Automatic annotation (TrEMBL):
It catalyses: 2-methylpropanoyl-CoA + oxidized [electron-transfer flavoprotein] + H(+) = 2-methylpropenoyl-CoA + reduced [electron-transfer flavoprotein]; propanoyl-CoA + oxidized [electron-transfer flavoprotein] + H(+) = acryloyl-CoA + reduced [electron-transfer flavoprotein]; (2S)-2-methylbutanoyl-CoA + oxidized [electron-transfer flavoprotein] + H(+) = (2E)-2-methylbut-2-enoyl-CoA + reduced [electron-transfer flavoprotein]. It holds the Pfam family Acyl-CoA_dh_1. Residues 266-416 form the Acyl-CoA dehydrogenase/oxidase C-terminal domain. GO terms for cellular component: mitochondrion. This is Isobutyryl-CoA dehydrogenase, mitochondrial. Belongs to the acyl-CoA dehydrogenase family.
Amino acid sequence: MAAVGPLARVARLGFSICRNQRVLLNRSSQRRGIASCVDPAHGLTDEQKEFQKVAFDFAANEMAPHMAEWDQKEIFPVETMRKAAQLGFGGIYVQPDFGGSGLSRLDTSVIFEALSTGCVSTTAYISIHNMCGWMIDTFGNNEQREKFCPDLCSMEKFASYCLTEPGSGSDAASLLTSAQRKGDHYILNGSKAFISGGGDTDVYVVMCRTGGKGPKGISCLVVEKGTPGLSFGKKEKKVGWNSQPTRAVIFEDCEVPVSNRLGEEGQGFGIAMKGLNGGRINIASCSLGAAHACVQLARDHLLVRKQFGETLSNNQFLQFKLAEMATKLVASRLLVREAATALQENRSDAVSLCSMAKLFATDECFNICNQALQMHGGYGYLKDYAVQQFVRDIRVHQILEGTNEVMRMIISRNLLTES
């Protein structure tokens, strides 16, 4: 399959590239340009700026106008995501020979940050889908890559990542879902919890126990929807992330071909952790997009909202708060991009930097969004205003892809064990 990158796709489909990166603000707000001190294009190559402009344009035109409806009606926006895939966003860091865009981790971070200004929940699912595609592309053989990657990159099929279980969240190495080999099949039994896309997606990348206790007994199987013995729990009711369904994934004597195993038996935990390193960068990048949008929303609100006879922008306390928000946004962005570069280069500090980026960016970006809501006063608590949805959607980023407490454990362990 010939390699077709995002820009080639854009040219072919006649998509216009937005030359001024923007987010769609509240209906009553005026569109304004990005302040130079928080401009996410700083430091990027010309090519990266083009990717970014395409993503910002897609976020503003295809996602932001529907963000509230997707949230309130819990719509999984399949067709919108397939439009994103036409731009190359279905397999951003999957290799081009089977339909991917072949971009770097930094390129990917830039794209997810921009897309998240339009809808965090939808972008976060796209990031998980990309992670699954990368795992198959990286650890699968050519037959597996040919079977799964093209449909995942085009988003004709959607993927879910299945690691967490009801009894094993942060302690992932203690997972209990078992796979007993019988001839050319594994018999899979157990359940996974909190699975994004569960029930609505087509491909499940499942970590399961084929050996003894601990991480060395874990393998990775790709389970296809429709396989006998695969079923799903009820759709969870969540605070945020409502444009993507979340369900338990249940295996009851589920027969999975041995040919669907990624890598060798016992390599699953390593595959899972390598996937999560990138996932942490991805989810931190989604937090950046939310925080960027909220800084814009807060600035616009301060410029137009009047109290005590003058606009809130003249209040020094709020000026200082806005300055702190902007500073934390830029600091978070720089750390995330440094971690993305370290991961791409396979540097020795990559795991720690990914953990630092996830910890710092998801904490600080949530604080930025929450402060933006506070600046809106009572209006910020109304669902007519986008700021409350950004707050709800990124709160979970401090929990998933490894809780921020686990990130602290990883960072401190590295500091204390390096000689």
